[in-house]
Amino acid sequence: MQATLYALGAIALWVTLASLGVALRHVPPFLLTGVALLVGSTLALPFVAKDRQQWKIPARTLLLGVYGLFGYHFLLFIALRLAPPVEANLVNYLWPLLMVVLSPLLLRNVHLRAMHVAAALMGFAGAAVAILGANASPAGSLAVSGTWSWGYLPALGSALIWASYSLWTQRVPAFPTAAVGLFGLVSGVLSLLCHWALEPQVVLSGQDWLLLVLMGLGPLGAAFFLWDKALKLGDARHIGILSYITPLASTSLLMLVSGRPFSWSIVLSASMIISAALLGARARR
Asked: Can you give the pLDDT at residue 140?
């Protein structure tokens, strides 16, 4: 139960990520990633001030953390720039499916049952209905672009990175959740160095800074700590299926912000995603 609550907390924060990313799409991706991750890393400082040992972790663990936090968000923000955001979001949200399907390949003593596969596929179908339904025309027909965009490749890469990172954190030696702040700190510094070397310098407005702080404290900050606790306490297969709530809620928020009305597709996708989560939970028993 605790793992589910932690996972839902992380999911609630990640719901805002796409909307914030689109609002900040004019900010260079390395700069965006770096500032937000540095802000998020500050959440660990009170814990580290009490016990500095919490940031003493093996180099392999630190490299895994940088791989996950830096790699995932950089590729996601690139995708949101190069591809239509809704379609890019769909490809990115393959990560819950990949997390369920890859668990027996990347984790020891974990087996994939037919029910897990069915739940994962049902959840992905529900996510597809939610996100593609956001592109429906007033007449009810889908108006999804059929043209290829190179942005789909970094979106797919981001999905693979986050799924593998989430699973591999269970393969490395146990580390304190506060160490996630060190992952964010190192990733943020690396991102800003890349910005300085590779991107044009820009002047950020007051609104840009406010959105960056919100992103850093929420989806690129507290969400990581909650997610780590969920993975430490729960079943990765179940948590991966539960994560299908994210694209549903994220798409709903984008529709609300843009003023678009809710449609039958949201209701249908909600039913499919909730059914998938219940099926996945039943498969644990």
From this structure: 45
